[in-house]
Write a structure and sequence with these properties.
The chain is of the alpha+beta class. It has one domain. It binds zinc ion (ZN) (2 copies). The site of one zinc ion has 7 residues, from loops.
Length: about 180
Amino acid sequence: MHCHFCGGKLEKVEIGDVFFEGSICQNGHQISSRLKKYSQDEYWKAKGVKVDKSGKAEILREWLGNPDFRIKLPDQFCELLRAELDLTIGNQLNTVISGYNNCPMCSEKLNPKKSDDVWVANAECKNGHTWWTRHQIWSQDKSYSQQLDITHETYLTLRKFYKESKEHRECIPDQLWDLI
Ligand SMILES: [Zn+2]
Ligand SMILES: [Zn+2]
């Protein structure tokens, strides 16, 4: 597959979040694809839960990497945790924000596809591959999606959002609250 931002060829890489497959393109863009085998239900079920690990990186790894814990957290919060883990272990975050420029299948340029129906794909390459672009880029049958991992700026915005919201103070387990 190819990076939807630049068309570069993707290579698989290990990332912390067990619900996503990670890849990196030849131009260094970090991409995640959600694995279909995990339900997309996004509920907070983590209050009061604690993993039996010590050290920031190990605690984050367990929350993200063990499906029994990961299922208790919503995807967006896990994007923040993954960035937190990357920064903790000295990895760089992405430098670009999503732009749906190239076909993930063949890397050809994507063109807008006119449609009055929001449930019809809205981008197409010259080889006839069609995609939806909504938060992520999705194949027409929704069996495959790609998103760019967050930038440092988005990481800061997300962290502020979670830390300042009373509602989230009620859902985020203390163990993670103290780490973000
Ligand atoms: Zn790229
Ligand atoms: Zn294509």
